[in-house]
Amino acid sequence: MKETDSNRKFSGATRYVLDDELASIVNVSMALEMPLLLKGEPGTGKTMLAHAIAESLEMPLIVLNVKSSMKLIDALYQYDTLTRLNDSRFGDSNRDVSKIEDYIKMGKIGQAFTSEVRAVLLIDEIDKADTDFQDDMLDVLDQMEFDIIEIDRTIRAKYRPVIIITSNAKKDLSDPFLGRCNFHHIAFPDPKMMRKIVTVHFPDTDANLMENAVSTLYKLREIDNIEKKPATRELINWIRALETDPDFKPKTLAKGDIPFLGVLFKKSQDYDKAMSITNRPRLF
Q1: What region does 14 belong to: left with phi over 0, alpha with psi -120 to 50, or beta?
Q2: Residue 182 — φ and ψ, nearest 5°?
Q3: For the residues 165-190, what does the mean pLDDT come to?
Q4: Which pTM value belongs to this model?
Q5: Partner of 158 at 20 to 30 A CA spacing, among 127, 144, 251, 282?
Q6: How far apart are CA 263 and CA 282, in angstroms?
Q7: Do 182 and 32 form a contact (C-beta atoms < 8 A)?
């Protein structure tokens, strides 16, 4: 197997702010050729890290969005038996139905293995899959090969991809799975880090708007019994919404007058609770 880019280091991207610990574990994982498992609450930048690595190291990004019903073979390749059957019955295709390989399409892992350049492979929300999928997938990623049984061919990775795996911790992962990955928990940013993140996305934002928006976010996250607290992603979208409102004044946030709560809270019960509290005078 060929290897390239072994000395390249990741230190962040144009719109992704990270701390030294996260940068170090990314680079250690690439050096050790191990998958990096990221955990953390939704909206903290787990998925965007893979995008940032691909941007920084100028690699293509291949994304496998894991579904609960997904089988490993779907991530490796698909054999289009229906199209081949139709071609054989109706004969209106230019394909030779005797060539089964013409009906094989690579899945996301297969695409990463057959890529002509080293790629970043993001396996998103692995906790949605069952344990067999998780463990069998890591077998393939360890060996960097898999078999296509229909054509008796082994697909070996041309380049070992940079593998980022995310989990929202909705379901425990198996011990064998955890043992074969490096691990990092992306904690929710503290206010200082959040200001840096906001500045990267909004370099020309009014300072009062940024300060009041960040302060308001942290106070909203303290509301009791919120199922899905607003995170970095919601804050960025909320600031965009605030900037589009010509009548908005940043100082109103300090008074508890908070517009566009539907951008911050995505679950009905959370939205209703936030509405009931923020409508009270002197919330903050």
Answers
A1: alpha
A2: -80, 155
A3: 89
A4: 0.85
A5: 127
A6: 22
A7: yes
